[in-house]
Write a structure and sequence with these properties.
Elements (H helix, E strand, L loop, with lengths): L1 E2 L1 H16 L9 H14 L17 H11 L9 H34 L9 E3 L5 E2 L11 E3 L5 H15 L2 H17 L9 E3 L17 E2 L4 H13 L5 H17 L9 E2 L15 H16 L2 H7 L2
Antiparallel strand pairs: 1-2, 2-3, 4-5, 6-7
Helix pairs in contact: 1-4, 1-5, 2-4, 3-4, 5-6, 5-7, 6-7, 7-8, 9-10
Length: about 300
């Protein structure tokens, strides 16, 4: 049996954060973030934001407050004191939930990074992690390749980035940056992306990105999703490789647009229905939304002008 459990688990946990996390995670230094990551990845570790482990707040005063809130009985609210203690008990319960969610997120991230392919990911993994696939089991992802089509590599990067934006824990941004480098390396020389890309030559020390020429697609939000993630990453980091990749991607959107404002399924044009104006899978809608996002982010009038063609 094969499953997308790694990616799905991480996305579910990130979604849970909006319920369980109340903005209580903060790290003073990157070293503190690294320590949290090491704890979570190696042995389950302590909960983020707590030096005393997952039970902090249950000893001493925390227990007294929670107990007083629970034992005060139905009449406690009549004199006001019981209500305050009950609220403190509820706060403690919410704090514990927040810590549990954050700890689970770090463990999920540690797992996801352990199966990364030079920072990127396949679409589907077998449970023993030995087999990798793309959209379905009919598409094998070869060694050294990553999957771009959602929910592939950019989708995982968006999850890391969302985790960083919510918690401020630096290790999530480090993970998002790794994904960004993989996405930028897999980008075609034309500026877009295919379903998958070869990242076997990408190393942590790589400075100059070597792109190959080839067909790129707007199908299934592939080129849109790749550029969207890089632009979102650009909101929090500024590096030359990222600026270069985004500029190349924006140029691809402009170059591939027809004079009437539509887009094909593939570009450069390859013949047959691939060259037709493509509404399937929201292709044109997604491209219009991308130009609007590009205009909002970078402000040049040409992008909005292209929306109005």
């Amino acid at each position: 049996m094969r499953s997308k459990i790694g990616t799905l688990l991480f996305l579910i946990l990130i979604g849970s954060l909006s319920v369980g996390c109340r903005g209580q995670v903060s790290t003073e230094t990157d070293a503190g973030s690294d320590a949290l990551y090491e704890d979570a990845g190696q042995d389950g570790g302590s909960d983020p934001g707590s030096d005393s482990g997952p039970d902090e707040g249950l000893d001493g005063a925390g227990d007294d407050q929670a107990d007083s809130g629970q034992d005060a009985g139905p009449d406690a609210g009549q004199d006001g004191a019981g209500d305050g203690d009950a609220n403190q008990g509820a706060d403690t319960a919410e704090d514990r939930l927040s810590q549990q969610v954050q700890s689970a997120m770090l463990r999920a991230m540690a797992f996801m990074r352990s199966i990364a392919i030079h920072g990127g990911y396949a679409g589907i993994y077998s449970l023993d992690l030995q087999e990798k696939y793309g959209e379905g089991f009919y598409e094998t992802v070869e060694p050294g390749y990553i999957w771009i089509q959602p929910p592939g590599t950019p989708s995982v990067g968006e999850a890391y980035l969302r985790a960083y934006n919510i918690t401020g824990v630096a290790v999530y941004l480090e993970a998002a940056r790794d994904v960004g480098r993989a996405v930028a390396w897999a980008q075609r020389l034309e500026g877009g992306w295919d379903h998958q890309g070869d990242v076997s030559g990408l190393e942590p020390t790589t400075v100059s990105f070597e792109r190959v020429s080839g067909q790129c697609t707007f199908d299934d939000d592939i080129s849109q999703g790749g550029l969207r993630f890089l632009m979102n990453l650009d909101n929090v980091i500024s590096e030359d490789w990222l600026t270069e990749s985004i500029a190349l991607g924006i140029g691809f959107f402009l170059d591939s647009q027809f004079a009437n404002g539509a887009w094909p399924q593939w570009y450069p044009l390859r013949g047959s229905y691939h060259d037709y104006y493509t509404f399937n899978d929201n292709t044109i809608n997604d491209c219009i939304a991308m130009l609007i996002q590009i205009h909002k982010r970078y402000g040049e009038a040409v992008y909005l002008d292209r929306v109005n063609l």
